[in-house]
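Researcher: Final request for today, and then I'll write up notes for the group meeting. The sequence and the SMILES for adenosine-5'-diphosphate follow.
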Amino acid sequence: MLDIRDLTKQFGKGDSAVTALHQVSLSIAEGEFFTLLGPSGCGKTTLLRLIAGFEPPSGGALVLDGKDIALMPPNQRPVNTVFQSYALFPHMTVAQNVGFALEAQGRPKAEVARVVEKMLALVQMTHLRDRKSAALSGGQQQRVALARALAPQPRILLLDEPLSALDMKLRKEMQVELKRLQQETGLTFIFVTHDQEEALTMSDRIAVMNGGRLQQIASPRELYDLPENRFVASFIGESNFLMAQKLAGMIEIEGSKTALPSGFAAAYDGPVIVMIRPEHVVLGQGPSDAIRLTAQVERLVYFGTDTHIHMRLRDGTPLVARVQNALRGGAIAKVGDSVPVAFPQDALRLLPDTEA
Amino acid sequence: MGEAPNTERDAQNADARQRWRLALPAVTIIMVFSILPLIVVVLYSVLTPGDYGNVRWVFSTEGWFSVLFERDIFDDTLSLSDAHLTILARSVGLSLLTTALTLIFGVPTAWFIATRPPAARAFWLFLVTIPFWTNLLVRTIAVQEMIRSEGVFNRLFLWLGLIDQPIQMMFTNFAVLLGMAYVFLPLMVLPVFAAVEKFDFRLAEAGYDLYASRLFCLRKVILPLVRPGIIAGSILVFVPSLGAYVTPRIMGGGKSMMLGNLIEMQFGQGRNWPLGAALSITLTLLVLIALIYYTRLTSGRQGRSHG
Ligand SMILES: Nc1ncnc2c1ncn2[C@@H]1O[C@H](COP(=O)(O)OP(=O)(O)O)[C@@H](O)[C@H]1O
Ligand SMILES: [Mg+2]
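Model: Predicted protein-adenosine-5'-diphosphate complex:
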């Protein structure tokens, strides 16, 4: 439905120019909950503003339903935004805010009133319809901003870190709420966040961005299981990175070898980076195809459901294992112990050896 | 247990007395410099004019009477004072026009300045406030230089062949209006600037995102939020315009007098201090009406729903 091709955005000119987006290409399908994820300053807001039409792109195409909308003004695009700051009109009531777009479109009064009531009910704000928007709590403002953007029934709803200003509890509630709304309305959402957990729990697909470049586009599960590069692996979840040698279809870490995991074709031999998630590190012998090493325990951190064991390999590489806490049984290991660790072959991921 | 409230009340009373003593200097200054002169003016307005200015201590309503009426010297018949009415109407009219003119030029100027980058803003604001550091007389004479018969405009128009005789612009209502609009323009620009600067342009962006045209955005989002600044600027221009003295004197001469000049005349050549005092109070009342209207406009906003 929305096709973004080689979209580039540069701010400023000459020496002070900042390239906020480098040839970003992605396609978003109808009804998808699509998330842009990345650290602060990676260009998420810029991409959203280009889609909304607040900024013209420096290059590339923005095609919605087969039509290039790159230079169409915002008030003609069937795309609405829920702003990071909410940007509610402070001199209007909740109902007036929600009805704004319909009034701007010159819809008949009866229709405006009907849609406003429907939207208020949808976000459970009917009881506050006549309250001035400046007199609302953060969570309530959030709901009004959502209803205001949904009222004109856009093709795409853009949400720029809509939950970042809320406290933890409210945030979890709104995550559920947002997902419910998206499923109920069947609307396409483009959701921006820098919170990987939020992205993983809510999205159909996630585009990970860094430094104005797309890193990987995949489903949450795929992103976690098969990160394509070191940035994605470290930004999403926790990871151990190990220096390894690739040689004749085998992979070797500190002298211990196993066959190359399937799907990682041997393009060349030499040093590679191997990634393994802490929950996949086994304390003990592990399966027969595992890489087996010895590590020294440095620190134990208790997390209730599990314990994080911080260790060092012989060459000094840090290693974290996450072990579920059993109902009975004593300590898993003691600080200072030398313990056997195993990396099952199917838990190993090879990453291109770029970006140290 | 009956003691406690009493001691508390005593403490409060002592506290109030203490506060009253602390407020004394301020109250004295207000009394001496603001209430007392007002009382003097009110008192003078109901006395009899002296022969060489000043007043005689004889009660008379003649001063107030002469604000609107005049008595025929021969047959004592009453009639509305055309001269005074004209001046009153001209004062109110020219002040309203001055306000309108400063709105037309001041609001876009303020808008322009408020939307520059912060560094450039300071520069433009400085330019706007330069007239404040300049003597009022000098500024007014500068405008005079523009429009007098041998002034810049007339020479330019003559040279361009648009006219073949200088246009008489000085000593007309137009001259007074132009002078006042020029002199009071910064008083409009500054409060409007402050309001526009505070305006969150993301709101305009939100409006634009929600299918509003630029005009709709201006009417429904921007204007309601910068309105306090526009109203404050209007009052700041209207009130001193009403009492303006120097500018009408130079630009209007004896032909286009305003209230301020009429009052001055009563205390000078006219030697009619009671009438001057009564006119002054009339002026003050007009200002008061404008201020009441202003508070209505601004406080009414909370209660009234928009749209
Ligand atoms: N209007 C602008 N002018 C200049 N640089 C900008 C502008 N907007 C964004 N940038 C720059 O573009 C980069 C991406 O910003 P942004 O899209 O806001 O990141 P994010 O939303 O991911 O935190 C940043 O380096 C930022 O400084
Ligand atoms: Mg952002």
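Model: DSSP finds eight helices and 20 strands in chain A. Chain A has two domains: 2-230, 238-351.
Researcher: Thanks, that's everything.
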